[in-house]
Amino acid sequence: MPPETAKTLAALSRETKRQLGLLIDRRGIINFVLVGDRKSVYIPDLTKYRFSPGHLRGLRLIHTHLEPSGLSREDLTDLILVRLDLIAAIEVSQDGQPGRTHIGYLLPSDGSRWTIETYPGPSALPKEAPFIISQAEEDLSRRVKGRTTEGEERTLLVGWTGSSVDRAEESMAELRELARTAGLIVTEAVLQPRVKPDPRTIIGQGKLREITILALDQGADTLVFNCELSPSQLRAVTDATELKVVDRTMLILDIFAQHAKSRGGKIQVELAQLRYLLPRLVGKGTALSRLAGGIGTRGPGETKLEIDRRRIRQRIQTLERSLSKLRRERETRRRKRGDSERPIVSIVGYTNVGKSTLVNTLTRSREVAEDMLFATLDPVSRRLSTAEGHLCVLTDTVGLIQDLPPELERAFAATFEEIGDADMILHLADASHPACQEQIQTVEETLQSMGLFDIPRMLVLNKADLVDPETLGNLVHRYRTIAVCATSRETLEPLLVEMKARLPLPSGQWPPGAGAGERLGEGGP
Predict the structure, then answer these.
(1) Are 377 and 256 in contact (CB under 8 A)?
(2) In this predicted structure, what is the pLDDT of residue 514?
(3) Of the N and C termini of the chain, which has fewer Cβ atoms inside 10 Å?
(4) DSSP-based three-state secondary structure for 315
(5) Which CATH superfamily is domain 153-246 in?
(6) Mean pLDDT over the full length of the chain
């Protein structure tokens, strides 16, 4: 800092009774002149000065303090959040002369994330600023690389409690599982005690700063919220943190996009994504980068935004027509199945309770069955056969989830219609899950909201081998049902007996005295 620059800055600051600042790049060029108020200066939008994990911004801030004081909490917060190369504060005397000068940089010292030094005046500052900055960046890069896994994003989960802490904790546990399914590495989960969300940032400005510092300190580049963010909230949080911000709905959409394999599944996922994206086109930076295509993330002006909106609306209309055609094709296939007089059993349940595994075991098929959420997106039908004939057609459906995003419910209406043609709904629940009862209630409420409550239902508890006998007995007694292990064929005989008793089977399919060992089927498409 040339002495003349320090003197001019101090004199103008005292004359205007405002803090003044300079943002200087590594070539020594002043990029910004900042005019603040008496207590602080405000750093402008620096999104064009992008930085990656392990690197500093490439800018240092030199500013004035009108009162004798060291670096303030705001100064140190800016140092961390903005990732400045270095920050300096010059105390200004009453006659407008530069006095004691304080500097801070991101090199850990005495258990702190930063180092703070004080000098008699600007002329006494160390001359090796480039060396200090390179040391700070090397240390930051070393710490971040130690936490980075190649090819996977590191994320920090963020939530607020609402009126029920227990339910919020369950929501965060489910969010962690969703993040794992999406291929994210969760560094930490933060739950903010709030009865109502902050209208602007969900968790409040102060907490958001803490979380941003924590995310940056852990090398996380993504924040995932346990609720849906409005377009304005998404923009506010992204602008405040300059991190990738993903809400629960966006995360679920991303999982669906990863797992969609069939033409129908891809159409439904893209339609849900575009309906979600349309009101959020004004988002900028990394806010929408998880969505396929990234439409609207670079929009320089209103004209381009309007063009993007029109294209999205046209694409939505095209997808809706394709979806209508898909719905008619499925209706034709369902009618053919109905003409064959085979009873249809739709297996529904919370996501990842073992629906696909049950279908595979009963019908000897090999559908995708993975230990992750939403592994199945497309309805799959397989006939359950025995040596004596066909028992029924089993339909595996997409898993349900608490607070199913409206975009998904609308887009997957064609898929859920498969359930409506069933002669019976087999509601499969995970007996080993801590929130088993809440998951059962969620599925029941979803079926009721879809107008499917008139179809006969049969509740079955799965994963009995993972539950202690007392807990399992209580659940069986409470719901007056049976417990099975979908991976063990021996435990499924009581289920088949119960299905035989409840289904409207044609006469002669189950001759009296048929052995239990003959009943597990050959399967087939």
Answers:
(1) yes
(2) 36
(3) C
(4) helix
(5) GTPase HflX, N-terminal domain (3.40.50.11060)
(6) 80
Out of 221-225, 372-376, 483-487, give the one with best mean pLDDT: 483-487
Q: What is the pLDDT of residues 102-156, one digit of tens each?
A: 999 988 887 777 889 999 999 888 877 788 888 888 887 776 665 555 556 788 9
Q: Does residue 345 contact residue 499 with C-beta atoms inside 8 Å?
A: yes
CA count, 13 A, side-chain hemisphere, 525: 5
Reduce the DSSP state of residue 197 to 3 states and report it: coil
| Burial of 296 per CB tally in 10 Å (0-12, 13-18, 19+) | buried
Contacts for 46-49 with beta carbons within 8 Å, 24 or more apart?
A: 46/82, 46/242, 47/242, 47/284, 47/285
Select from 62, 66, 75 the least CA-distant residue to 18. 66
Structure tokens that stand for 65 in this block: 């303090």
Residue 297 has pLDDT above 60, yes or no: no
Question: Which two tokens mark 156?
Answer: 């920090």
**Alpha-helical segments (H) within 41-128:** 73-81
Question: In CATH terms, are 153-246 and 340-518 the same topology?
Answer: yes
- Does the predicted model carry a pTM greater than 0.85? no
The SS3 assignment for 320 reads helix
Q: In the numeric block, which tokens belong to residue 306?
A: 């309007």
Give the fold, CATH level 3, of 340-518. Answer: Rossmann fold (3.40.50)
Is there a contact between 135 and 107 (Cβ–Cβ < 8 Å)? yes
CA 52, 56, 59, 61 torsion: positive or negative? Answer: positive
Exposed (0-12), middle (13-18) or buried (19+): which is 31, by Cβ within 10 Å? middle
Locate the domains of the chain by residue range: 3-145, 153-246, 340-518
pLDDT by residue (tens digit) across 154-198? 889 999 888 888 888 888 988 998 888 888 889 889 999 988 889
